[in-house]
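Next comes this protein.

***
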Amino acid sequence: MVDYRDLATVRQVAAEAPFITEATLRWWIFHAETNGLKPALLKIGGRVYIDRAEFNKWLESQRLAPKPLKPAA
């Protein structure tokens, strides 16, 4: 279920994450069918909203290598 408090516009996400430009986000959104970003997107009317929780999951899935497990103490 979507929590409206987790939704953001492209501009809001770009402002919160300075390493991502609006142009980059729009490119990712345009290619969402092939890059796996589609579950993080909601389209209402002509506007696209990004579910921050799903977007963070997608970002995590883009790692080149899995994070190493911490050794047990």
The beta strands are 7-8, 41-44, 47-51. The chain has one domain: 4-62.
